[in-house]
Amino acid sequence: MAGGSSASVAARHWQVAPGLLYGQVKQIYRRRRLTRVVPGLRCGSWRSFRATLRGLGLSGQVMPAFVERANRTLRRGVAGLARRTWATAQSAPQLLAHLEWWRAYYHFARPHGGLRAPVAEPLDRGGRQRPPRCRRGTPAMALGLTDHPWTVLELLTYPLPPPRAHCA
Question: Which residues neighbour 132 within 8 Å (Cβ) at sequence distance 6 or greater?
Fold first, then answer.
């Protein structure tokens, strides 16, 4: 090795966060037909995994439908992750920046149909339409972080904290 010895270079090892719970779903196909769904756990224990899922209001099982829905939503939002596209991620930092922008938009600006909040005083819209009794909200509104869906301008002009230094 030119310019130094391999003994002076510290070996880097991936470390997993101690409380990480990571479930996996394997779909077994035979002749293009789904025959079995095998859940697996890569990090954590089944007891803590099920308890955490139930604490979130879920059934406690890993289901392919939720995983596929999350993957589809992410691929539709970030062009570099789409299956067939002209958009390519030129570098990992560029893809990460696009992903973080999409996450902020998804949580603060994009109303979700399932997160409806009742309106205290329905506004009469005139005409034959009934006044709406609820309004669609965002995940940030459901957590109480904001009281309205943000516009893209609000999202772009919000002051960000300084970036954290990465561990070497």
Answer: 119, 122, 123, 125
Looking at the domain assignment, is residue 73 inside a domain? no
DSSP symbol at 73: H
Q: Is residue 3 part of a domain?
A: no
Residue with tokens 């756990």: 41
Beta bridge partners of 22: 43
For 106-140, the pLDDT digits (tens) are 999 998 888 877 777 777 767 777 777 777 888 99
pLDDT, one tens digit per residue, over 38-97 is 888 888 889 998 998 888 888 888 777 877 888 888 888 888 887 777 776 677 888 888
Amino acid at 10: A
Nearest to 25 by CA among 73, 69, 61: 61
DSSP 2: T
Count: domains in the chain: 1
Dihedral sign (CA 162, 19, 73, 88): positive
- Enumerate residues 6+ apart whose C-beta is below 8 A from 151: 109
